[in-house]
Amino acid sequence: MAIQLTFEPDKVTMEIKDNGSGLVADRVAAHGDQHYGLLGMKERAKRIGGRLEVSGPPGEGTTVRITIALDANEAPPEVVL
What we know:
Strand order of the largest sheet: 1-2-4-3
Shape: globular
Number of strands: 4
Strand content: 25-35%
Helix content: 10-25%
Distance between the termini: 21 Å
Largest sheet: 4 strands, antiparallel
């Protein structure tokens, strides 16, 4: 697993990669779950003005990337864990 945090003048990006088997659409759909983990991450990212991207080509692990745009005229969002 690797975690990378990147700071740029206009955004902050956190990327988490694992070495699993990736996301296989048929297998995810077959479970019939609501996948609240991914939904929860998306809602939390949106709440702080961010965007969530999840990718996982079969056999290549999964990457979760959260990008938060920064506006120099506003205070940064409060993050509560």
